[in-house]
Amino acid sequence: PGPVFGSKDNFHGLAIFLDTYPNDEATERVFPYISAMVNNGSLTYDHSKDGRWTELAGCTADLRNQNHDTFLAIRYSRGRLTVMTDVEDKNEWKNCIDIAGVQLPTGYFFGASAGTGDLSDNHDIISMKLFQLMVEHPAEDETIDWTKIEPSVSLLKSPKDNVDDPTGNFRSGPLTGWKVFLLLLCALLGIIVCAVVGAVVFQKRQERNKRFY
């Protein structure tokens, strides 16, 4: 037990949060909101910011007060984590989260917990179905002791650098070379356009002044 949706903070492993209430009044996200977090025990979940600083990715899912069952599919295979939802009773899966480079050790457990603040809420877990995926792994994976690796994600940047994004997608890190090139190109085109417009305006004024002479 603990403060993070009923479970402990600074945990080890993967957490998928189904958050139904925004604590951060400045957020542009639409709730209920599903997000993913991988922790090696060093990260703290910030409820005041709805976990924005440690979120890897997320999406909006209207799972509250439905008259039908809602479904969440979590798949982890060869370092890729995907989360899909079926909340509209259409028997159709929608993509929510897709992250590569996720490293999770074996020997961990599955669990579910919940917590609420001043506003009470109720959700029922009807069932949890678990499947072992049979996939081929590279030869080098056979030499790894997966029970001893640390939970981690190959990020482009630190999660603490996250900024709010209404789409819920993971944001890329600092400006890369091609982004800088595009910005410089746009700036150069803007300068050229301003110069051309200025030259045209100056020429028309000169012609107008000649008429007065």
UniProtKB/TrEMBL annotation:
GO biological process terms held by the UniProt record: endoplasmic reticulum to Golgi vesicle-mediated transport
Membrane topology: Single-pass type I membrane protein
Transmembrane segments: 180-202
Transmembrane found in the keyword field: yes
MF (Gene Ontology): D-mannose binding
SUPFAM superfamilies cross-referenced by the UniProt entry: Concanavalin A-like lectins/glucanases (SSF49899)
Keywords from the named record: Membrane, Signal, Transmembrane, Transmembrane helix
InterPro entries: ConA-like_dom_sf, Intracellular_Lectin-GPT, Lectin_leg
Pfam families, sorted: Lectin_leg-like
Record-annotated L-type lectin-like domain positions: 1-133
Subcellular location: Membrane
Any one of the GO CC terms: Golgi membrane
Identification of the protein by name: Vesicular integral-membrane protein VIP36
Organism: Opisthocomus hoazin (Hoatzin)
Species lineage: Eukaryota, Metazoa, Chordata, Craniata, Vertebrata
